[in-house]
Amino acid sequence: MKKVSFLILLLFPCFLLAELGIEETDSHIEITNDGKTVLVYHKAVMSPPEGQPKYFERSGFIHPIKSPSGGEVTGIHPADHVHHMGLWHAWVETYHNGRNLDFWNLKEETATIRYAETLKIINNDKRVGFTVRQRHVALAYEDHPEEVILEEDFTILVRATEKLYLIDHKTVQTNVSDHALELPAYRYGGPLAYRAPYHWDKTNSNYLTSEGKDRNNGHETRARWCAMYGPTEYGDSTLVIMGHPDNHDAPNRQRIWPETSNNGRIFYNWVPIQEHAWSLDPGVPSEMKFRIFVHDGKPVKERIEKAWGSYTK
């Protein structure tokens, strides 16, 4: 039995600890809990659904994330937004050396994000995880060749019991070009985005933020954490995303779809540029940290607050 931090025992003292595992292949990195999938990170390029354009190809994202019961809590390639990829991140309306680059909307064919290499596999008596390098690439156009704009070291660390998963998510992005990457104020885009299963909509799911907001009043508000929940084949499951107070412009504003958008399906994005523009200058690392808390059942605010307090300590 692996050791685990006091945090997990404090939150759920009656739960048994679990045996975490990690396996890397040529195509992916999978983290398991007592042999059951917790999450899968995709190293290899994933093709879009049949009939969709090739420009929707992408690597460097996580899908699925599963709840402790085995229910899938991420969605990929939904019909309404084919470029949504489970748990992923990308900047949207950016400017670099006079050119507009969109790393999010792949159909613009100006930029993309790619897995480059695995830097570290972590497997000890407290947690398992990995650090990979991803490259944010401006695609070739006219007589300009491809150019790497950001090199990113992306780390995932997982701790677990049989009833909950804690997933630490950290990105360190460094502009390796000769020009600033300008990030104007925009309603979405940035260091963490989440798409729930396609069947989570206004009839069976919702959001709960640290400030008590939901799908119809949460957009553009600031929060320390946001819980999203809905049904799986094994019952209701909840995924909470906590933003670290050291993050740029924390507590961040949020992109939340109301019930009038896409039938109220669950899409979420922390947006550190929603109110104020930002510039990623050459050679200056930018770090953003989050914790993802996955459990079965619906969210309990007091439990999440306790987890938030432990995280921020």
Characterize the biggest β-sheet: 8 strands, antiparallel
Q: In one word, what is the shape?
A: globular
Number of helices: 2
Radius of gyration of CA atoms, rounded to a whole number: 19 Å
Task: Summarize the topology.
Elements: H1 6-11, E1 20-24, E2 28-33, E3 36-42, E4 61-65, E5 87-90, E6 94-96, E7 99-101, E8 111-123, E9 128-138, E10 147-160, E11 164-175, E12 181-183, E13 190-195, E14 206-209, E15 225-232, E16 235-243, E17 253-256, E18 267-271, E19 278-280, E20 285-296, H2 301-312
Antiparallel strand pairs: 1-2, 2-3, 3-4, 5-13, 6-7, 6-12, 8-9, 9-10, 10-11, 11-20, 12-19, 13-18, 14-15, 15-16, 16-20, 17-18
Relevant terms:
313 residues, mainly beta, Beta-galactosidase, Chain A, domain 5, eight-stranded antiparallel β-sheet, 2 helices, 20 strands, disordered N terminus
Summarize the structure.
The chain is mostly beta strands.
Written description of the protein model:
The protein has 313 residues and is mostly beta strands. It has one domain (6-13, 22-312): Distorted Sandwich (Beta-galactosidase, Chain A, domain 5). Helix content is 6%, strand content 44%. The protein contains two helices and 20 strands. The protein has an eight-stranded antiparallel β-sheet, with helices on one face. The protein is globular, with a radius of gyration of 19 Å.
